[in-house]
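**Paired protein data**
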Amino acid sequence: MSAREEGAPTNTHAYRATTRDFTMRLLRHFTAFMVGMLLTGSVLAADSSYGYQHEVENPGFYAMVGDLVIARPLLLGATAIGAAAFVVSLPFTALAGNTKEAGQELVVRPGRETFVRCLGCTRSGYGRKQQDERR
């Protein structure tokens, strides 16, 4: 008689149990890692807000590069999506009488943030000189 005929456990049960244990252990580690990353991000964000006003007035190299590489393309996409949403909503906003407000919020405002804001600045304007005059 072989081991299978005698009712001995097959090797597949042991494999399934170890795979399940490994998956659960991996999930626990990943969850702990993500919680740690979220907490670290919130601590770093709170810590860096103390010198915020100085950073807004004089954006550094990394702020300018981040603005150019990340923020501007996203804002360009937001402008395009806003323009498409404005065209789709145009019949409804025309009937309601708020076409100007919809155009302002969906197209003009993201476009101004994309094209009229100086590189690394947080307020829209053609440059730091114009921003200082607006204050």
About this structure: The two ends are 92 Å apart (CA to CA). Confidence is low (pLDDT under 50) at residues 51-55. Helices lie at 11-48, 52-57, 61-96, 99-115, 128-134.
